[in-house]
UniProtKB/TrEMBL annotation, chains A, B:
GO MF assignments: hydrolase activity
Gene3D superfamilies in UniProt: alpha/beta hydrolase
Pfam families: Abhydrolase_6
Naturally occurring in which organism (per UniProt): Rodentibacter myodis
Name by which UniProt lists this protein: Alpha/beta hydrolase
Amino acid sequence: MTKLFKISLIAAACGLTVQTVAAPISIEQQGSFAVGGTVKTSEGVYNPEPDVVKDKDSNNFMDVFTASVQAGGQTLHGDHATVFYQIPTDARKNPLVFLHGAGQSMRTWQTTPDGREGFQNIFLRRRFPVYLIDQPRRGQSGRSTVDANVKAVPDDQFWFAQFRIGSYPDFAEGVAFPRDPKSLNQFFRQMTPNVGAFDANIISDSLDKLFDRIGSGILVTHSQGGIVGWLAGMKNEKINAIVAYEPGNFPFPEGEVPPTLKSRFGDVVPMSVPKAEFEKLTKRPIVIYFGDFIPDHLDGTQSGEQWYIRLQLAKQWAETVNKHSGDVTLVELPKAGIKSNTHFPFSDLNNLEVAEHLQEWLKAKGLDQ
Amino acid sequence: MTKLFKISLIAAACGLTVQTVAAPISIEQQGSFAVGGTVKTSEGVYNPEPDVVKDKDSNNFMDVFTASVQAGGQTLHGDHATVFYQIPTDARKNPLVFLHGAGQSMRTWQTTPDGREGFQNIFLRRRFPVYLIDQPRRGQSGRSTVDANVKAVPDDQFWFAQFRIGSYPDFAEGVAFPRDPKSLNQFFRQMTPNVGAFDANIISDSLDKLFDRIGSGILVTHSQGGIVGWLAGMKNEKINAIVAYEPGNFPFPEGEVPPTLKSRFGDVVPMSVPKAEFEKLTKRPIVIYFGDFIPDHLDGTQSGEQWYIRLQLAKQWAETVNKHSGDVTLVELPKAGIKSNTHFPFSDLNNLEVAEHLQEWLKAKGLDQ
């Protein structure tokens, strides 16, 4: 048991929050950078004195800007990932690189909706270097090489169901999610849209470049980020291990792709990749986590059907990889004694237990050095 | 002289980067949260089982999503700011709250384009609590209550000029900006677009809420964020002081508004506010910084004309506030012996000198307690 975990148990026993008793975190180095991406260049010749402004009595800055970009010959640096990293004192060898899921940013891994510490702080306290990502075309990486039409469509209730918090306005019974309005407000405000189409290839390219820059490490993905993680793992051998929280899809080798999994709330078509690519995912340990409130049949609810079929697919994939001499551990948290989790186990009320399970797995695989 | 400043001078003398010799930073607390914003609700009644899915052989997840949001009765939590904060051990009383400028996010204040420490780390080392903001509709606060049409228009060269780095591809002579291609690549990739129209009122509302939450502190703005800072200062008395790096506009009291400042590259129309509102800005110390390469006349270049008129306006505003018993210090960095700065003094090659000047000002105003 780590020191923080002990402290947190004491804190819980005393009815205190973790923050009030936690020791300071000693940060050896922290910073941010962009990685990956491309450069888009407009036709024409850059004109530092666009014509529009020459004969007007009144000049609008935006008119000048428009004239400047219309003259062309300019570049746009886009489609990169943005990374914020912290390296604690006396750090372990393997950093943890965290990639968010759909509609999220690096906020996923920071403070929880009810103000407790997320995996960022939890694993810094456990002396892991922590790298947080805003994937290309999301959050601070909003500079995209393609146009984006972002609609301000109210959809919180859809995601409340999809993320297995409950069926709005009802919380799932006993769910490990805070029930006060302030926390739900914070949770909804973690969301941030795509600026340009989601592109798993572009995102995994940026992860490839990231691991080339930082060296070996462990990739931790969530949900939509799962497929990005599998692609990145096929691109870069420096990814020592992959940890996937409720990944949405999986790459099967050609010829071994299972049939489409059907549900009333959206089917899942398993991904197909060349066998040689698939084999690369058999060369490193992988752990996949699923939370609670996942039924064992198609139950007619959005959350139940969506996660029933994705868990089924995860089981098929784990079996396939392991049949090819891979090393996939599939953890259904309730079966491991960790109950009541939503689609966001790493920020749920019991996220210290969830973190502890991950650290034990890393230790078992010799990855906590 | 602070300890880090001394270390950095030794480092410079030895040809080392600051990072290699800097001591760890002890972080008492760090985390993130959303603040401010509104809730938009769609008409209709939330339907957890949208009809579209009932009679189809094949169900597409996005069709289900569309049917769900079309049924209505859902919410969108948007227009909030996202805040990442760090409180160092033995912290000073007044936190520094940093707001970026146009096209930027909290990345502005983090690692510099050439990998040195930005104001985030520099002021943490000087024991100030540091709050970094992604303003509403920017970066991690991309969830907007209005639609956004984001065009992927190449415009790097326009901003290279506007930010006084030079006239692309030429760097201004002696400019305190790194000249290697990797640094310029990083600089361009700091940019991230608006997701929904820029709205200084919404942004200053979120700052108002932030200071209500964290208590008294110092607001530091950049460029487009300048006007937001003046508005926030009129809304919240807990803003003890305002530090503005090259603000783009200023609020004058009705009846004392100077004429429009004209230039070939865009005019500036001074902002007008009721006198009672203006008076609030006379109740706290304010420092305004401008960098180098600003001519003393309209010189026919984009950067020269734009910043000549804005500096002129800054001088007029400082005079107006001080005439009303206010306390504005206008610092033209070259006249203070700090030369060669772009529009981003806080990340330029000499940003430790720029930080030192700010800390001396804070000390002089009794704000470094």
